[in-house]
Amino acid sequence: MGAQQSSSQQDGEAYNSQPRKTCYYELLAVGRDATDDDIKRAYRKRALELHPDRNLKDVENATRRFAEVQTAYEVLSDPQERTWLTSTEDIFSLIRRFNASVLFTDDPSGFFGIVKATFDQLADEEIAAGEYAPGDAPDYPSFGISSDSYEFVVKRFYNVSAD
């Protein structure tokens, strides 16, 4: 694990309470398969665009954005940091989906929508990762939606999940 990511500011709780607004790859406008040279070129371009000396009308915002780009470059140009970032992106993306402001609706951004999509994805990954003979794949029941009955959907989900 890289030094920056293992610091107390970047561990799970602190990271979740102040999530990065934009992914580092997006900040530098490079793909996840970018080479070191691609990252360096993109950093130089963005640094020139966002440098506070070139944005005198909004120095405070330019300073903040420039610092974000510098951090993105520091992480993506360090092989160990980049590997850690890539391996944990999905986890932190998932954690950021859960917060107190989520409504208890079936919408994709609501509690039931988020949890259902998450468990559906986990079930798909479990089945894909397993080496099951045809017909032996486990049957993962759906998490369901807000109006589902306890007896026919919820109980079955929790019984299978508890095993």
Automatic annotation (TrEMBL):
<feature type="domain" description="J">
    <location>
        <begin position="23"/>
        <end position="93"/>
    </location>
</feature>
<dbReference type="InterPro" id="IPR036869">
    <property type="entry name" value="J_dom_sf"/>
</dbReference>
<protein>
    <submittedName>
        <fullName>DnaJ-like protein subfamily C member 21</fullName>
    </submittedName>
</protein>
<dbReference type="GO" id="GO:0005737">
    <property type="term" value="C:cytoplasm"/>
</dbReference>
<dbReference type="Pfam" id="PF00226">
    <property type="entry name" value="DnaJ"/>
</dbReference>
<dbReference type="InterPro" id="IPR001623">
    <property type="entry name" value="DnaJ_domain"/>
</dbReference>
<dbReference type="InterPro" id="IPR051964">
    <property type="entry name" value="Chaperone_stress_response"/>
</dbReference>
